Amino acid sequence: MEPGGCDMGPAVKAVAAVLPAGGSGERLGGATPKQFCAVQGRPLVSYTVRAMERVSWISDIIVVVSPENIETMKSIIKKYGHQRVTVAEGGITRHRSIFNGLKLFSENEFSNCLLQKPEVVIIHDAVRPFVEEDILRKVVMAAKEYGAAGAIRPLVSTVIASAADGCLDHSLERARYRASEMPQAFLFDVIYQAYQQCTDYDLDYGTECLHLALKYCKTNAKLVEGTADLWKVTYKRDLYAAESIIKDSLSQQICIITDAKEAVVQVGFLLHESLRSQIKVEAVSVSLSKCDSHLQNTFSGQCYNFVCINDNKYAIEEIQQLVDMLEESNVPLLHPVILISVHLNSSENTSFSIDLEELTRMKKFAREVKRKNILVYGLLIQHKDNLPLQETVNSAAALIMALIKDRNPELIGQLLVA
Ligand SMILES: Nc1ccn([C@@H]2O[C@H](COP(=O)(O)OP(=O)(O)OP(=O)(O)O)[C@@H](O)[C@H]2O)c(=O)n1
Ligand SMILES: O=C(CO)[C@H](O)[C@H](O)COP(=O)(O)O
């Protein structure tokens, strides 16, 4: 890719993005503005930045935050290793924040470094974390052709207007209208000139960038059908929905690790059979060694769930080895990784007893590795001769699925029994 260019073909020379994140999140409530609320331990804004930075043809990402959150944003960028991101100071309304972000490319009162002016600029709310490359590409290409473009969705409810007496005045024909969503994209000069001509009323009460391009630059935006997950986190329930979507995406794949012992391999196989209808399963049979390439590939494939089966009680050493390998793999632990240590207790060992000291050791270990964003749980498969092994393994599989779907940090270090 040419420096400052983009790999969308010769059509668009350079693309940048401005993410307004300077609001206070009144409708959501609470002391923390919604863009900084933790979702699975990571601030919401970090997911949106990640969604942008994984698009290689976006050269610069400007995150606009209120003055009191500049340091918070900088520490988020550092902690999560975000690239190509510049922080700008927000204004008292969304439009003022966006305008401040755009100024970094043209007139820069906040820092000495003036960024390269892009041909097309994307504007995307920092509280819409699930934006995909496909829709970004569509709005950018449409902006190149029409000057402005924005994602739309069908209306969920009919829009009605009330009269002064609080009674219905008129109602709009729902099929003719659309909800305006984000992302939107503009030829930089179009949106910048529009903002320069805005009145204070526009800047303080306006909610629609596409409208500014039409009003001040006579640019009719192209409207592009978006997907349902472009919705904006606005109310508390939206945070719960975002959390569920993220948990769901982290629960798509699991890696089962066994050593070469026959009984362990057998349980690994049965577990694989039991889980594979619900989740993609990778099975690795190794004596945990630091140079196992299959396991290394699984780490870099961004698998966030591991089951390590052994016939040693608790097997803290094996789990520690896995933790070391995860850390050494240089995969940034952006989301909590689930590590389930499955202990297989066969029927001959009827005198198996739960040792309080071991349990305490396991809990201490789990608390330590939680700091590395790894959640460790213990699971005992108690195989009795009078029950088919597959039945016990099925109940272990159900517990494993519950642990990885819930990803509950409060349950770390606990020993479950299948
Ligand atoms: N002065 C402002 C106000 C809003 N925004 C950003 O614009 C996006 C969409 O706005 P909205 O959902 O209205 O956010 P808030 O203003 O924070 O929410 P509320 O209206 O409930 O207070 C958010 O990412 C928000 O941080 C901004 O950059 N600067
Ligand atoms: O969808 C949008 C633009 O079309 C904006 O996200 C929306 O208008 C923001 O408005 P508000 O800050 O009032 O939620």
From TrEMBL:
Its EC number is 2.7.7.40. It comes from the Eukaryota. GO terms for biological process: isoprenoid biosynthetic process; protein O-linked glycosylation via mannose. PROSITE patterns: ISPD. Keywords: Cytoplasm, Nucleotidyltransferase, Transferase. It catalyses: D-ribulose 5-phosphate + CTP + H(+) = CDP-D-ribulose + diphosphate; D-ribose 5-phosphate + CTP + H(+) = CDP-D-ribose + diphosphate; D-ribitol 5-phosphate + CTP + H(+) = CDP-L-ribitol + diphosphate. Homodimer. This is D-ribitol-5-phosphate cytidylyltransferase.
